[in-house]
Hints:
alpha/beta; five-stranded parallel sheet; Arc Repressor Mutant, subunit A; elongated; four-stranded antiparallel sheet; Rossmann fold; single chain
Amino acid sequence: MSDKLLLVEDEPSLARGVADYLRHAGYEVAHVPRGDAALAAVREHHPDLVVLDVMLPGRSGFDVLHDLREAGSAIPVVMLTAKGDIVDRVRGLELGADDYVPKPFSPHELLARIRALLRRARRESRAAPEPLTLSGIRFDFRALTASGPDGPTGLTTHDVLVLRVLAARRGEVVSRLDIIEEVCGLESDATLRTVDNHIVALRRAIGDDPRRPRFLHTVRGEGYRLGL
């Protein structure tokens, strides 16, 4: 059975060319040209991956991505951004995008990114640790969500992915480079400081004091460890 893709792109010629290319590569492709139609298309088509432009009529790609993650969706998302716009890339990754491709791009490059993300999603669905509850916050590592008594915590997909890496190796020290490779891939723009920021967000959500941590321990010069 073919993987299903949703393309959200408003430039007709680009959308037509990308959709045809991806169909020729063996995927089922649905297309919508507006951001305000994207969520309904996700519900209708149940795609395995979304290719999402940033600049869209109706709603921006950032708004669509935010709503997807707020709803608990872990669908892999590739953002299409303006060439060289690092601000868009960073914002997309912070909102939970899995990858980005700057315009103009080669359809072959987009296809390679899609294939890599789908492989990772299948691998992660098999290897995800069991759900974990820390200080009343329940982390679902398959859905990549974190919720407390009052609902979603506001943690991003990448925050939860960082904790998932630590949970899979609970009790071990995991280097920040290992975390980057597992969460983003070594070719991403993520830095060691990016990992630190995710740890800060996780600690804030679970109320873990960095000076006397119960769960997330810093091992200076090496990385982080999730306490037993």
